[in-house]
Automatic annotation (TrEMBL), chain A:
SUPFAM superfamilies: MetI-like
Primary gene name: oppB
Every ABC transmembrane type-1 domain range: 94-297
InterPro entries hit by this protein: BPD_transp_1_N, MetI-like, MetI-like_sf
Organism: Salinicola corii
Keyword Membrane among UniProt keywords: yes
Pfam families in UniProt: BPD_transp_1, BPD_transp_1_N
Transmembrane segments: 12-30, 100-121, 133-158, 170-190, 232-254, 274-297
Lineage: Bacteria, Pseudomonadati, Pseudomonadota, Gammaproteobacteria, Oceanospirillales
Locations listed in the record: Cell membrane
Name of the featured protein: Oligopeptide ABC transporter permease OppB
One GO BP: transmembrane transport
TrEMBL record, chain B:
PROSITE patterns documented for this protein: ABC_TM1 (PS50928)
ABC transmembrane type-1 domain segment(s): 118-307
Highest taxon in the source lineage: Bacteria
GO cellular component: plasma membrane
Region (Disordered): 1-35
Membrane topology label: Multi-pass membrane protein
UniProt record, GO biological process: peptide transport; protein transport; transmembrane transport
Regions crossing the membrane: 55-77, 120-145, 157-176, 182-200, 239-264, 284-307
Protein name in the entry: Oligopeptide transport system permease protein OppC
InterPro entries: BP-dependent_transpt_permease, MetI-like, MetI-like_sf, OppC_N
Keyword DNA repair assigned: no
TrEMBL record, chain C:
Cited SMART domains: AAA
InterPro entries assigned: AAA+_ATPase, ABC_transp_ATP-bind, ABC_transporter-like_ATP-bd, ABC_transporter-like_CS, Oligopep_ABC_C, P-loop_NTPase
Protein name per Swiss-Prot or TrEMBL: ABC transporter ATP-binding protein
Single annotated GO MF: ATP binding
Signal peptide annotation: none
Keywords, alphabetical: ATP-binding, Nucleotide-binding, Transport
GO biological-process terms attached to the record: peptide transport; transmembrane transport
Lineage, uppermost ranks: Bacteria, Pseudomonadati, Pseudomonadota, Gammaproteobacteria, Oceanospirillales
Pfam families in UniProt: ABC_tran (PF00005), oligo_HPY (PF08352)
Organism: Salinicola corii
Length: 308, 319, 533
């Protein structure tokens, strides 16, 4: 297990290298520089700035320097938030994003799995149609539509919950963004769980379990759920990636100071180092999450042993 | 008729053995060969099954309606895409001035803009899905057919691509190269081909082991013919199913980018852009959010329903 | 003897979306305590539905009428709760699919122990002791170690033994065995049947044995009921039914054992194909550096077939017999020398082989997998013509297709249909027509009848026999079914683990097998006694 984990981490290195390299060179071929902003700077000052940020060096040099700094966890300075380094911004935003995203994925599992199981057990019943119809709506209405409508209805019109803002992560401020972020994943997970559960319930070993004289509760609880979870587990990687991506708009809409918002703002402000820093950070995050999901999968399926 | 139709034969039914009493119902016994309509191909069979699915057919009808309206509508409406009605800034739906769904804050007709936006969103869906289809099918079929070491490397490459934070790379691309519709086509297509490649490769590998491919080799059929006559027609079902899943994903991706302000540029618009504008105005002019949202959601809804229906119709297991 | 189970006018109707389908109609029979009753029939006869109905394990859309009385209690009327007390406790069941009937995520000890917890409230150490005892009884080696195995770590035969252990755990009065040996190799089949017999004696239980295999019935059952289209057409003591069948269908089933022997090919017939030291290996793990791992499927085989002869290749799954056949036709890469009419063909590339392809044809086992579902039967059959006789025009090709279909006794009007509209036997005829249209000299028959019902099998074999006589074909006949091989072959090769362990004329091999493995195979296939009968 340990060896497998280490191996996977090693395999992640080329992936991350690709991400970093592409991002780095994309930015350097981009038209314009970081300082042709609001007002024209005098040439010497610009030259000084370029030198200060080592932008006057040849590209390969810059690349190596960037990589060297990265290894020390330094993403360089932000061009727009002049007083902060990108690392500082990410470290400020990450706990916030983690809280929202973690809660959203948790909510998606807590609601999505039971809904899918219920729909599968009561297949072709009203419950099933209701759950699946709702799920399809959840998939068809994107989160950037749901989020503002939630904010309008529950925040502005009804006034039950704050329509935006973070307020240090107070519970009322968390509800709307977390729900908006998880709805789509709830829908996907419920649909997948239903399909996978139906398949398992039709399998031979479930027939065996019934032939043993177990009652339906025991059959489902002891024999059906765990095998049905396997395909859903392998969807968890993409689900997490989806939540991370979704958090970008959700944070924007609700004005939450997470990484997603820095990312969008960085992109709109041409704050290249910030954008690149967040992309690399997200890359590491997604790679790590996939690894964790795979390890979880192996915990569920005895047939998979990561021992070589 | 054949000797198999003699009374003792259990053979007409051996294509559909009753399962050993598992929780699944038995399939209906295969119709006597004489009773089946002559030469019903799998495609026609699938269409017959699909057309019995009312939800899918309603979705198909609505989808066609949306597409037709988006294509034809702008010619029939009196307003242009960026045309400003100086008498109507941010009015609600009204017959006056023919603003059936109101105008935006700049006095532009919302229905006109939604339909133009639909053209963009749908064209992105079409082109980007095609791009992903072509790349994915070619890549997957080559990888699966060649097999062995080549397959190994090609799939390793796909694995690496998978773990890239693609969404963010696309955004980075848009930031760097500016918001250009062709870039959107290419970028989204380039993201979505990975799944398609995997599916086609899996199909190809599975088909390669099927005995009818071996039989074709035994007949001396050339490789190119085997690919075109046996592999592709048999892999097409799953590909169609996957395309119907890709199209809504692409539409969503485009509107996501547009919503973030990274999609198409003025004066062009798309549903994502309109929704984003609607969000800013939603307290004073909720129709600006609701109308494009409705179009987007209805399209996605129909595509998903249609995809589900197609999957049921084409999946041999539900046969 | 009092009757333990009494099935009284049982009917089962499935309410399918396409309309009601009656799978079982007015079936009645009884089983006495300790007796073995066989329910025999071909696929679709309703035999499995009947037995599953007795456990009340049919899906909800099945409507069941009549009565199933177990010790006088009508199981169709008891509460679900009462029924669950019966299942696994008084009546237990084993199934056809040993590979998938166990939960892949639970250790086998736990799965067996679950029954004991459920019905006997046996927990903890006592539970484990009983499970070990059961594993021992069903002949699982090293039960102490195996009790903690997962199903994937066991072979098919071992999994079926685990299923039996689970079924016997509560010492049921009735065991329903639904084709328990069909998915297993013949030698394993025999072991499982022996095991069931000895356990039956030990536990004194009755067995309801569902099977399509008449030879098993004869050796195993006290009484038998023959089913067709959901009805019992004949029942009685096994001996009586076998000696004096009353119903035409029973007679036909009993007759459906391939009989007769092949007329030998002329002694001076030239050798058509020969192979020397043929080896095939598959890469298991490819490594970039270091040694790749290989599985040797065929490990050095010599053979030769004369024109007009049939060489039978016999072996269990994994013996390498199909691989050898494909290698001889150069459908797989192999080492060693292959000669066809004196010429060495082992070095030919694809285009070099192409002219020979029309002379070397093949019919595969799976009638559902060997025809492209997207092509019409006419296109499938004429595909070879397009390759080898490109000069033919449409009409000429059509005429050839019609002739080929007539030759395999199919209605030529069916050529515009698609394969999914045909039954298994018909598809196999189509596959034969596809091969024959090229007028081949050597036909590789890879288990061509194994997926078919007995009665259909016999007719396909008759067809193959007629065709061989008519066209002077040479057959390379691969099968695990010894009775079919005996009826068709001049020479027989017995394969095991990639090697030929015995080779000789069909007569010698079947009447006087030398190797213990061949003897075991023959014994398992019940051929000795059939020859005597």
């Amino acid at each position: 297990m340990l060896i497998y984990t280490l191996k996977r981490l090693l395999q992640a290195i080329p992936t991350l290298l690709i991400v970093i390299t592409i991002s780095f060179f994309l930015m350097r071929v981009a038209p314009g520089g970081p300082f042709d902003g609001e007002r024209q700077l005098p040439p010497e000052i610009e030259a000084n700035l370029m030198a200060a940020y080592h932008l006057d060096e040849p590209l390969p040099m810059q690349y190596l320097r960037y990589m060297g700094n990265l290894l020390q966890g330094d993403f360089g300075p932000s061009f727009k938030y002049k007083d902060f380094s990108v690392t500082e911004l990410i470290m400020q935003g990450f706990p916030v994003s983690l809280e929202i995203g973690g809660l959203a994925i948790l909510l998606a599992l807590i609601i999505g799995l039971p809904l899918g199981i219920a729909a599968a057990i009561k297949r072709n019943s009203t419950v099933d149609y209701l759950v699946m119809g709702t799920a399809l709506t959840g998939i068809a209405v994107p989160n950037f539509v749901i989020a503002p409508i939630f904010a309008l209805v529950f925040g502005v019109l009804l006034g039950w919950l704050p329509a935006g803002g973070w307020n240090g992560g107070a519970l009322p401020n968390l509800v709307l963004p977390v729900v908006a972020l998880s709805i789509q994943q709830i829908a996907y997970i419920a649909r997948m769980m239903r399909a996978s559960m139906i398949e398992v319930l039709g399998s031979h070993f479930i027939r065996t379990a019934r032939a043993k004289g177990l009652n339906e509760g025991e059959v489902i609880w002891r024999h059906a759920i765990r095998p049905a979870l396997l395909p859903v587990m392998s969807y968890l990687g993409p689900a997490i990636a989806g939540i991370i991506t979704g958090s970008v708009v959700i944070e924007q809409i609700f004005g939450i100071p997470g990484i997603g918002r820095y990312f969008v703002q960085g992109a709109l402000n041409r704050d290249y180092t910030l954008v690149m820093g967040t992309v690399v950070f997200y890359g590491v995050l997604i790679v790590l999450m996939n690894l964790i999901v795979d390890l979880l999968y192996s915990a569920l399926d005895p047939q998979i042993r990561y021992d070589d | 008729m054949t000797s198999e139709s003699k009374p003792y034969s259990g053979e007409q039914r051996d294509g559909a053995p009753l399962p050993a009493g598992g929780p699944n119902p038995p399939r209906a016994p295969e119709p006597e060969a004489g009773a089946a309509p002559i030469g019903e191909s799998l495609a026609r069979d699938a269409w017959r099954r699909l057309s019995q699915n009312r939800a899918a057919m309603a979705s198909l009808a609505l989808l066609i309606a949306i597409i037709v309206v988006c294509i034809v509508g702008p010619w029939l409406l009196p307003w242009g895409l960026a045309e400003v009605d100086w008498n109507a800034f941010g009015t609600g739906p009204t017959l006056e001035g023919a603003h059936y769904l109101g105008t935006d804050a700049n006095g532009r007709d919302l229905l006109t803009r939604v339909l133009y936006g639909g053209r963009i969103s749908l064209s992105v869906a079409l082109v980007a899905s095609l791009v992903s289809l072509v790349i994915g099918v070619l890549y997957g079929a080559i990888s699966g057919y060649l097999g062995g070491r080549v397959d190994n490397y090609m799939m390793r490459f796909v694995d690496i691509m998978y773990s890239l934070p693609f969404m963010f790379m696309v955004i980075l691309l848009m930031v760097v190269f500016g918001r250009n519709i062709f870039l959107i086509y290419a970028a989204i297509g380039a993201v979505e081909w990975l799944d398609m490649a995997r599916i086609v490769r899996g199909q190809t590998l599975a088909l390669k082991r099927r005995e009818f491919i071996e039989a074709a080799h035994a007949l001396g059929v050339r490789d190119t013919k085997i690919v075109t006559r046996h592999l592709i027609p048999n892999a097409i079902g799953p590909v169609i199913i996957y395309v119907t899943l890709t199209v809504p994903k692409v539409i969503l991706l485009e509107s996501f980018l547009s919503f973030l302000g990274l999609g198409v540029q003025e004066p062009l618009t798309s549903w994502g852009v309109l929704i984003s504008e609607g969000v800013d105005m939603m307290e004073s002019a909720p129709w600006m959010l609701l109308v494009p949202s409705f179009f987007l959601a209805a399209t996605l809804f129909c595509l998903n329903f249609l995809g589900d229906g197609l999957r049921d119709a084409l999946d041999p297991r539900t046969r | 003897m009092s009757s333990l189970l009494e099935i009284d006018k049982l009917s089962v109707t499935f309410q399918l979306p396409t309309g009601p389908v009656t799978a079982v109609k007015d079936v009645s029979f009884t089983i006495a305590e300790g007796e073995t009753m066989a329910l025999v029939g071909e696929s679709g006869s309703g035999k499995s539905v009947t037995s599953t109905a007795a456990m009340r394990l049919l899906p909800e859309l099945a409507e069941t009428t009549g009565a199933i009385r177990f010790n006088g209690e009508n199981l169709l009327e008891v509460t679900p709760k009462r029924m669950r007390r019966v299942r696994g406790n008084d009546i237990s069941m084993i199934f056809q699919e040993p590979m998938t009937s166990l939960n892949p995520l639970h250790r086998i000890g736990k799965q067996i122990g679950e029954v004991l917890i459920r019905h006997k409230q046996l927990k903890g150490q006592a539970n484990r002791q009983r499970v070990l005892e059961l594993l021992n009884q069903v002949g699982i080696p090293e039960p102490e170690r195996r009790i903690d195995s997962y199903p994937y770590e066991l072979s098919g035969g071992q999994r079926q033994r685990v299923m039996i252990a689970m079924a016997l755990a509560c010492e049921p009065k009735l065991l329903i065995a639904d084709e328990p040996t069909t998915a297993l190799d013949v030698t394993v089949q025999a072991q499982i049947l022996d095991l069931l017999k000895s356990l039956q004696a030990e536990y004194g239980m009755a067995i309801l044995f569902i099977t399509h295999d008449l030879s098993i019935v004869r050796h195993f059952a006290d009484r038998v009921a023959v089913m067709r289209y959901g009805e019992v057409v004949e029942s009685g003591r096994t001996l009586d039914v076998f000696e004096a069948p009353q119903h035409d269908y029973t007679r036909m089933l009993l007759d459906a054992i391939p009989r007769g022997r092949k007329e030998p090919a002329p002694a001076d017939a030239p050798v058509l194909m020969s192979g020397r030291d043929i080896k095939v290996r598959f890469a298991l793990k490819k490594r970039l550096f270091g040694k790749s791992e290989y599985f040797e499927a065929v490990r050095g085989i010599d053979l030769s077939i004369r024109r007009g002869e049939t060489l039978g290749i016999v072996g269990e799954s994994g013996s390498g017999k199909s691989t050898l056949g494909r290698a001889l036709l150069r459908l797989l890469k192999s080492e060693g020398e292959i000669r066809f009419e004196e010429a060495d063909i082992s070095g030919l590339d694809k285009s070099g082989m192409r002219p020979l392809r029309s002379r070397l044809q093949v019919v595969f086992q799976d009638p559902f997998g060997s025809l492209s579902p997207r092509m019409t039967v006419g296109d499938i059959i004429s595909e070879g013509l397009k390759v080898h006789h490109p000069a033919l025009n449409r009409r000429q090709r059509e005429a050839e297709v019609i002739a080929a279909l007539e030759e395999v006794a199919l209605d030529p009007a069916m050529r515009n249909r698609y394969p999914h509209e045909f039954s298994g036997g018909q598809r196999q005829r189509i596959a034969i027509a596809r091969a024959l249209i090229l007028k081949p000299e050597l036909l590789l028959l890879d288990e061509p009848t194994s997926a078919l019902d007995r009665s259909v099998q016999v007719r396909v074999i008759d067809l193959l026999r007629d065709l061989q006589k008519k066209h002077g074909l040479t057959y390379l006949f691969i099968s695990h079914d010894l009775s079919v091989v005996r009826a068709l072959s001049d020479d027989v090769m017995v394969m095991k683990e990639g090697r030929v362990i015995e080779h000789g004329s069909a007569e010698t091999i079947f009447s006087n097998p030398r190797e213990p493995y061949t003897q075991a195979l023959l014994k398992a296939a019940f051929l000795e006694s059939e020859a005597a009968a």
